[in-house]
Batch of 2 targets.
Target 1
Amino acid sequence: MIDEARLIKLAVEARKRAYCPYSNFPVGAALLAKDGRIFTGCNVENASYGLTMCAERVALFKAVSEGARGFLAIAIACGEGPCAPCGACRQVLHELAPGLEVIMTDGEGKTVRRGKLADLLPQAFTPSHLEDQPDLPR
Ligand code: THU
């Protein structure tokens, strides 16, 4: 069972910890692992703009580095209305959680939109594509 309300609450709280002095666009995420643990993330920006890390990837990298592997759902809180994860985050999440449920909400967790990661990233590039090229040096 996915406790959606709890995930949303944690994403909204994580959003308050965002470090985003350049965009002033805080984002929070809460990722539910199959083992029941929830990992939160917020965006962390940098004076060298391109080094910014999104909230979703912070949550995923925290989870993987703590030994979590399977994932059920992610809640993302941002802005005036719900927003979908950026393309880079979709790709990175898809690597480990193609079946992920994506719960999108605004900064206060009021309006909620739901989707499946596989629908947000059709025809994804996956680890299996690397197996199709036996002639390439590894
Ligand atoms: N951002 C996220 O954290 N997640 C997304 O999916 C979209 C964008 C952050 C990156 C940057 O710090 C700010 O939002 C504006 O793009």
Target 2
Amino acid sequence: MKTLLITGGAGFIGSHLVRLLVNKYPEYRIVNMDVLTYAGNLANLKDIEDKENYEFVKCNICDYVAVQKVFTDYNVEGVIHLAAESHVDRSIKDPFSFAQTNVMGTLSLLQSAKLAWEGNYEGKLFYHVSTDEVYGSLGEEGFFLETTKYDPHSPYSASKASSDHFVRAFHDTYGLPVVISNCSNNYGSYQFPEKLIPLFINNIKHNKPLPVYGKGENVRDWLFVNDHARAIDLIFHKGKIGDTYNIGGFNEWKNIDLIKVMIKTVDRLLGREEGASEKLITYVTDRAGHDLRYAIDSTKLKEELGWEPSLQFEEGIEKTVNWYLENETWLENVTSGAYQKYYEEMYS
Ligand code: NAD
Ligand code: TYD
């Protein structure tokens, strides 16, 4: 049985990827390594936790000795690395933990893979999951290509850019077989409600103010999380070693327009009058270093590997809003306790 190590599999994107791989490849053993920070939640994987080809290992990716042990104990042959601190606002308040997890944690995994696989790289692959935020900010026009120069602005994107450089350095210096993908903003079920879409759905539901940064004119390119997981699966199996692939759905939205779609959808599904919740929109101080626009050109992924998003945005957002409205217990569990303190410090 081939063993794949997925890091950060209890998080938002990781849980969708683990579910996809466990169900699609009964011949693989899927080992989910996660330390379960505030963003990691085993409830995200309830439906597959008893599957024979799935195992969970609680481990901090920064614990180099423990990580090495996982590589040898499980005879890991492939890695898909998603574990990270992932929220820009938190990185502004605490950049050290981002450097620690995203840079040092990635290095600890790379070095462990190198030690475990050295002399026999055949059939091995280290897949690093990254973000389009490493490319910086676009003006009104243009797209990020795989060749776009890195220009990160937030501590989060700087730490992800640094981790990408380490991954390429391990390929160029030691010949480690690697592949990297840089994806646009994801949305869908099981996303921690600190990010725009689940946070605002939850606030609209509870008639709480919607804190729009600046003028709400920043643009993000949104991709349904299951389509990201499908792309990762495809790149892991068919991507060219040493290459980078951009992932995105050509789906740009100005924040304020997206927020109005969310308001309309939640109001309709809750049987409220159309637009009733628009009064909740509250413009607040802009995020420091707020990137104006992200937009991914994923033509390479389409032309080389045939990937395309499966969902139109209208369908994806409807499914997403429905999921958060129907999964009240999940939302209540993740928004109790420490979340309250985070929310107060962030938005008071
Ligand atoms: P998330 O914050 O929802 O999940 C991160 C997971 O990593 C959690 O389960 C957490 O417990 C785990 N983790 C954190 N630190 C760890 C450590 N030291 N050791 C072990 N596990 C640890 O993040 P996400 O949104 O699912 O993002 C996953 C990856 O995809 C990240 O690398 C992120 O940079 C990248 N990405 C995210 C997006 C997005 O829109 N969310 C877009 C592009 C790329
Ligand atoms: P976010 O979901 O944090 O993703 P990222 O910053 O990684 O793109 O934010 C998406 C956009 O929404 C971004 O332009 C910041 C904005 N935003 C708000 O206006 N208010 C909020 O409370 C949050 C969390 C985000």
